[in-house]
Please model this.
Amino acid sequence: MQPPPPRGKQPATSFAEKMAVWFHWLLIILLAGSFALVMAAQGLSLNLPGQPGWPEVLLLLLATAGTITALTRQLPLQNVLLAASVIALLGGAAHALGATMGIPFGPFQFGTQTRPYLFQTLPWALPLIWVVVILNSRGVARLILRPWRKIRNYGFWLIGLTAALTGLFDLALDPFAARVKHYWFWLPTKFPVTWQGAPLVNFFSWAAVSLLILAFITPALINKNPVRRKPDFHPLVLWLGAMLLFGLASAMHGMRPATALDGAMAVLVTTFAVRGGKW
Model:
């Protein structure tokens, strides 16, 4: 049994750990560049070469990879991959059911821009969207609840707040996806009240489905060897970046209520997350 290292000195970082850190920072740089490209294309209406929509595809892929690698700095890789797989499977299944039967989100149809489809029903990108939304909403919820992480019911509060943040995220996502990019189209319903054309049940269903998903993945996301770490603001940065993109697109298309809501959510979530992170 080796003696512990002298006080004030830390064990040497392994080569694999150094490579993981470098890879994480490389992803952050690529993600920032991809985000800047999408924002420029959206704000300046640039006609980029290649297939339409490829900057958004690149941004989603990098956001997914960045979310997973950031989480592996706190948890074993197999746990993170297990959680991501369950999220993709259940979230994708919920949307496949919605596309064929109109439940639980309400009646809608996918646009041609979302091809290719998985199993001739589900756009390939939707499972990745679920992974990005839920894991980063959970990361933001952890920041907000950091002052209360030692209370007995912390786990239930974390699940509930994550589901609420997922529903709020969809409030900002849907006008961008449905009315700006036309990834899907909402069909008329008997209930006249909608949010930017989407039935209100859609947003409650996103929260409800996320609750179901969290019930399965939470055991895999619990750190079995907890140590005090610095707060991870990576999820908040991704969350705010999405709000900025959705808000800009809504403003450019004259959707003032959506723009105002995106801005209000960004300010509110940032305030509580930064306050909790400094605890």
In short: Confidence is low (pLDDT under 50) at residues 4-12.
